[in-house]
């Protein structure tokens, strides 16, 4: 236990969790036990509440694996044989959606945008008007690639105008950014245990509109990622998972949900993330680090920085220097330019941001010398 929390993670998940979230994992639980299944049910119920939707119209399903498993579960379980999916692409995670569809042999088309811009609403409107055979529209909310926050409300309106199914990867926003699934017209929302709810990695979750989910029975291209089947077992067997579930992770997630409430719920968490992100952006700019995403499109979760012009950055040296001083940063994910990323989700507070800024300043001065 000596090495516990020797450094904090400025990464977009896994992230730094509280000692109390970690402590819940010291107990071994049985997947057959009703106490354990009750934890799953409590989580499902709480997730619906966070998405502002009711049991009866929507359902929450937990799925083993990382976030991608959840996205893959939806995209390979919901489309019927002849359905075509339209993917709005402006980052690596929307590109991954295309890759999932390609692997499964599901028909898809894309609308591509610059990675530092949000999808143009008129282009989506025109495309859906001209291509009536599209049945599902899929996009990412918070593009963790860049830190940009997409406008799912405006796109949702268009998608609903044409009566299409709307799938949103809200992996790195749900729990911190307010999402009213009903109002936004989202039919399937995907997120995971180790992002803004601040649990540990090991499962993803899907909040889905029941009517569409029930109609998808038999469509799944995979056994283990069959969303309908997973729902059917969980719903009708009191919170039981089909296959072995990550018991420690599930217990930790329930604790994380309770701690989200203690903090003041989603609004308080967003306020903390926003404050930290603003402090970070302002401080980094003063030091000569330019953010890749402009202020109006920047989300509260992670910021991408271009390598500064006034001094040379060696990512691995900088990473090592910061790690020795208690913080781990993240490499960039853009293909054409050199960048690095700083996440501010997890147990990160203003004092951490001040500390990080002073470390960057020290690193820069060391380089200047
Ligand atoms: C983290 C994340 C995912 C899932 O990534 P995994 O490595 O599979 O957990 C998907 N989409 C977005 C936007 C993410 O931030």
From TrEMBL:
Residues involved in substrate binding = 341
One biological process GO term for this chain?
organic phosphonate catabolic process
Q: Which UniProt keywords apply?
A: Aminotransferase, Pyridoxal phosphate, Pyruvate, Transferase
Q: Give the EC number(s) listed in the UniProt record.
A: 2.6.1.37
SUPFAM superfamilies of this UniProt entry? Answer: PLP-dependent transferases
Q: Which cofactor does it need?
A: pyridoxal 5'-phosphate
So what family is this one in?
Answer: Belongs to the class-V pyridoxal-phosphate-dependent aminotransferase family. PhnW subfamily.
What the protein does comes down to:
Involved in phosphonate degradation.
The record, for NCBIfam families, names: PhnW-AepZ (TIGR03301), PRK13479.1 (NF010006), transamin_PhnW (TIGR02326)
The protein, known as: 2-aminoethylphosphonate--pyruvate transaminase
Q: Which organism is it from?
A: Succinatimonas hippei (strain DSM 22608 / JCM 16073 / KCTC 15190 / YIT 12066)
Classification of source organism? Bacteria, Pseudomonadati, Pseudomonadota, Gammaproteobacteria, Aeromonadales
């Amino acid at each position: 236990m000596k090495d516990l929390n020797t450094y904090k993670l400025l990464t977009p998940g896994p992230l730094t969790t509280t000692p109390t979230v970690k402590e819940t994992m010291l107990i071994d639980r049985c997947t057959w036990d009703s106490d354990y299944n009750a934890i799953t049910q409590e989580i499902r119920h709480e997730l619906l509440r966070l998405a502002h939707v009711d049991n009866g119209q929507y359902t929450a399903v937990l799925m083993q694996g990382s976030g991608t498993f959840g996205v893959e579960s939806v995209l390979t379980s919901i489309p019927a044989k002849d359905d075509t999916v339209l993917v709005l692409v402006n980052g690596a995670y929307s590109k991954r959606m295309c890759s999932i569809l390609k692997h499964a042999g599901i028909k898809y088309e894309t609308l591509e945008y610059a990675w530092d811009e949000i999808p143009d609403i008129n282009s989506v409107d025109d495309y859906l008007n001209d291509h009536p055979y599209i049945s599902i529209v899929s996009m990412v909310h918070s593009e963790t690639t860049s830190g940009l926050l997409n406008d799912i409300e405006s796109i949702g309106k268009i998608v609903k105008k044409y009566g299409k199914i709307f799938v949103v990867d809200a992996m790195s926003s749900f729990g911190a950014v307010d999402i009213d699934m009903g109002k936004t017209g989202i039919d399937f929302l995907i997120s995971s245990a180790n992002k803004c709810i601040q649990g540990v990695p090991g499962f993803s979750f899907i909040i889905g509109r029941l009517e569409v989910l029930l109609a998808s029975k038999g469509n799944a291209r995979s056994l283990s990622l069959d969303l309908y089947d997973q729902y059917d077992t969980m719903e009708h067997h009191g919170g039981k998972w089909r296959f072995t579930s990550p018991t420690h992770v599930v217990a930790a997630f329930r604790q994380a949900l309770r701690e989200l409430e203690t903090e003041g719920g989603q609004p308080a968490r967003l306020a903390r993330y926003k404050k930290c992100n603003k402090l970070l952006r302002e401080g980094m700019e003063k030091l000569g680090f330019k953010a890749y995403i402009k202020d109006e499109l920047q989300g509260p979760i992670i910021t991408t920085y271009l390598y500064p012009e006034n001094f040379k950055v060696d990512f691995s040296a900088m990473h090592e220097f910061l790690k020795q001083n208690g913080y781990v940063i993240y490499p960039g994910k853009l293909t054409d330019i050199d960048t690095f990323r700083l996440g501010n989700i997890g147990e990160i507070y203003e004092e951490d941001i001040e500390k990080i800024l002073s470390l960057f300043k020290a690193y820069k001065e060391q380089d200047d010398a």
